[in-house]
Amino acid sequence: MDISSILQGGYQHPLSRSWQAKRQLTKSMFMYPIFITDDENASDEISSLPGQRRWGINKLESFIGPLVQKGLASVILFGVPMKCEKDPSGTPADDPNGPVIQAIKKLRSLYPELYIACDVCLCEYTSHGHCGVLHEDGTINTEPSVQRIADVALNYAKAGAHCVAPSDMMDGRIKGIKRALIDAGYGNKCTLMSYSAKFASALYGPFRDAAGSAPSFGNRKCYQLPPAAKGLARRAIQRDVVEGADIIMVKPALPYLDIIADAAELAADHPLACYQVSGEFAMIHAGARAGVYDLRTMAFESVESMVRAGATLILSYFTPEFLDWLS
Ligand SMILES: [Zn+2]
Fold first, then answer.
1. In total, how many domains does the chain have?
2. Is 292 among the domain residues?
3. Is 298 contained in some domain?
4. Is residue 198 annotated as part of the catalytic site, yes or no?
5. Ligand 1 centroid – CA 143 distance (Å)
6. What sign has the CA pseudo-torsion 11, 14, 16, 19?
7. Catalytic residue among 189, 198, 221, 230
8. Which residues, 6+ apart, have CB-to-CB distance to 183 below 8 Å?
9. Residue 14 pLDDT greater than 90, yes or no
10. Is 251 known to be catalytic?
11. Record's family (predicted)?
C-alpha cells in the first residue's frame, strides 16, 4: 500500500481524534434562548419543545441559578406576552413594566457575570402579528418599522442588555439600530447581533407555539429569505457587516450549513452565530424517541457540524444539557 493511502494512524486514539477539529466545543459557545412571559409566577411547559417553559420573572432565579452554577455564560430573552394590549406598532415591546425589560433588570442584579442578549422584534406585540409596521394594504412600511425597532432595541440597551439582536428582517434596521445606540451614548455599551440570514423556514413551528406569534394574515416570506436563496443570504450578510453589525447570525442552522460557511468567509473578522431553532431541537428529540439515534450523540453531531462550518456561537435549547455534557 502507498504511504499516501494511510490516514487511520492519525486518528486511532480518542485524543488524536479530538485534534482533528479546528476548534473544540466550549460552554461559552452556547447562548440559551429563554421565554419570558407576563405572568410573574409562570412556569408553563411548552409541549412542542421538550423541557422548555415560559417563565415568569419570579421564577427566574430558581431556574437560571443552577445553570449559572454549571457555567451558563449567556442567555437570549424572548418576550412572550399573554395579557398585554397589542396594537399595530407593537407598543408593549418596550413597556418598562413588560416582561423583557423587567427580566433584564432582574438578571443583571442576580447574575452580574451573565451576558444578557435580547431578541428584538415586533411580532409578539403587534395586533397583526407581523414583524414590522404595515401599510394599509398589509405590506411592510419600511421606514417606520426600522424606527420602531430601533427604539425598542435602544430601550433594551438602556435597561441593561449587553446585546440586542433584531430578528425582524426589515431592510436597513442594522444601520437604524446602530445609529440609535451611538446617538444615545450606547455605541460602546451594547453589542448588535444581526439575524442576517434568517430564512422563511418550516422549523419555527414550536417557537410560534411557545411565543404565540403566528401572523394573523399572510406569512413572512416578503421579509424572511427564501430557503434556496444563497445569493440573497450572501448579500444580506455583507450588507449587515457594512451597516454596523457586531455579530452575524444564520438561522436556522442545520439545513443552512453552507450559508454558515459562506458567512465565515464573508464576515471572517466577526463572531458568527447560528440558531439551532425550535424545530431542529424538536426533530432531534423526536428522532431519539423513535429510536433512530441516541439523543446525546446526535445533539453533539449537530452542533459540531455548525462549529465545523464556521460558527463561533450557538443559540440552542440544548444549552442546559451541554453544560452537563461538557463538564
Ligand atoms: Zn418577528
1. 1
2. yes
3. yes
4. yes
5. 16
6. positive
7. 198
8. none
9. yes
10. yes
11. Belongs to the ALAD family.
Strands (E), the chain: 30-37, 43-45, 53-55, 74-80, 115-120, 163-166, 191-198, 247-251, 272-276, 313-316
Contact (CB, 8 A) for 226 and 232: yes
| C-alpha torsion sign, points 95, 96, 98, 102 | positive
24-60 pLDDT, tens digit each? 999 999 999 999 999 999 999 998 899 999 999 999 9
Q: Residue 186 falls within a domain, yes or no?
A: yes
What pLDDT is recorded for position 111?
Answer: 98
- pLDDT band at residue 208 under the 50/70/90 scheme: confident
Identify the domain containing residue 256 by its residue range. 23-325
Q: Average pLDDT in the 290-304 region?
A: 98
Using a cut of 0.85, tell me whether the model's pTM lies above it: yes
Q: What residues have CB less than 8 Å from 263, skipping those under 6 apart? A: 196, 197, 237, 248, 250, 272, 310
Given a cut of 80, whether residue 212 has pLDDT beyond it is no
Which residue in the list 59, 86, 178, 251 is annotated as catalytic? 251
Cell numbers placing 175: 444601520
| Secondary structure (3-state) at 313 | strand
Residue 29 half-sphere exposure toward CB, CA atoms < 13 A: 21
Is residue 96 situated within a structural domain? yes
